[in-house]
């Protein structure tokens, strides 16, 4: 995952996309929730049942009450967290990058319920729709750990290539995984536990965020060079490149509202893509803050939550800037 910097003022800009784009709901930055210090952050997920937002942080998981729009605090202990995913039964699955493990935590108090050893630098993680199977992308090991989330044990490991980022699972049991080092999308047959031929992504540099729209059978990958790559799931073909902002790290899909949102951290914008029609079109742009590069959707309300902070200068030239203490926050973007 790439880290990016500073803050920006909040405003909404929208525009007409080329061609006859469908009408797009107006969105705005409606609230800012201050959160606890805890180092860096990465992926976030909403539990719409318990009205909680979970954010993977450097050493713990930050919890936000989405209904009250307030920080609850931080729970659990992890070593450089990258992803956190809510599971049935009041549990969380979190990747712990520095010790090659996946930790299962209680949502009530962060108590560790179990731990699974995986490949080197576990990064992104997703679960099957029923929550029973977890998929952990081990970035440096170049492998995917397939995990039984109830038994908290590894079912199998599929070897791919180093550089793995976010993934998407299709209904036929195919797992697509972005590879930021190879500029391609890896393909896994989950039922067989085997790798298929990767999908080349010419024109897409360092793909990171990924989402799958089942209605149109389209994968949307966020690329570091200001593009979103559109791939057809059934034939594994790149069909389109869409202009987006710089520094994206996630694709946030809202299938109900037929939109995809890509937070672009370097430009400090949230780009809005329409999923309707024969091609994907960018139909809106929301000014957010530089550094807001990941996020999560509340499927019920349509609200989008974007973690960010203010940053100081790096300690030395070329080093990664560090978030200023006391500035971590979550921007809440809502339909107007």
Automatic annotation (TrEMBL):
Source domain of life is Bacteria
Q: Which residues form the signal peptide?
A: 1-20
**Which keywords are on file for this protein?**
Signal
Keyword check for Signal:
yes
Reply yes or no: does the keyword rRNA processing apply: no
Checking Gene3D superfamilies in the record gives:
YVTN repeat-like/Quinoprotein amine dehydrogenase (2.130.10.10)
Q: What is this protein called?
A: Gluconolactonase
Q: State the organism of origin.
A: Sphingomonas ginsenosidimutans
């Amino acid at each position: 995952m790439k880290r990016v910097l500073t803050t920006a003022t909040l405003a909404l800009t929208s525009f007409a996309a080329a061609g006859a784009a469908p009408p797009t709901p107006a969105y705005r930055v409606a609230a800012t929730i201050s959160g606890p210090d805890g180092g860096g952050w990465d992926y976030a997920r909403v539990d719409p049942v318990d009205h909680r937002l979970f954010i993977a942080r450097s050493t713990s998981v930050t919890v936000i009450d989405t209904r009250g729009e307030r920080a609850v605090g931080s729970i659990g202990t992890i070593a450089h967290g990258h992803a956190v995913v809510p599971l049935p039964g009041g549990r969380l699955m979190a990747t712990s990058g520095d010790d090659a493990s996946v930790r299962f935590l209680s949502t009530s108090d962060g108590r560790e319920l179990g731990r699974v050893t995986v490949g080197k630098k576990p990064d992104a993680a997703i679960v099957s729709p029923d929550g029973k199977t977890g998929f952990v992308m081990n970035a440096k090991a170049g492998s995917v750990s397939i995990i039984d989330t109830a038994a908290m044990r590894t079912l199998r490991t599929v070897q791919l290539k180093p550089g793995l980022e976010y993934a998407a699972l299709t209904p036929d049991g195919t797992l697509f995984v972005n590879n930021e080092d190879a500029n391609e999308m890896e393909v896994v047959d989950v039922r067989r536990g085997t790798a298929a031929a990767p999908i080349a992504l010419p024109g897409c540099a360092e793909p990171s965020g990924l989402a799958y729209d089942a209605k149109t059978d389209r994968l949307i990958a966020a690329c570091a060079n200001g593009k979103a790559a559109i791939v057809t799931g059934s034939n594994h073909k790149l069909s389109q490149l869409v202009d987006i902002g710089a520094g994206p790290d996630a694709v946030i899909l809202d299938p109900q509202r037929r939109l995809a949102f890509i937070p672009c951290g370097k430009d400090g914008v949230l780009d809005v893509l329409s999923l309707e029609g024969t091609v994907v079109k960018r139909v809106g742009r929301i000014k957010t803050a530089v550094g807001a590069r990941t996020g999560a959707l509340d499927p019920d309300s349509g609200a989008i939550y974007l973690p960010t902070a203010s940053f100081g200068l790096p300690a030395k030239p070329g080093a990664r800037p560090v978030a200023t203490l006391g500035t971590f926050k979550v921007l809440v973007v809502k339909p107007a």
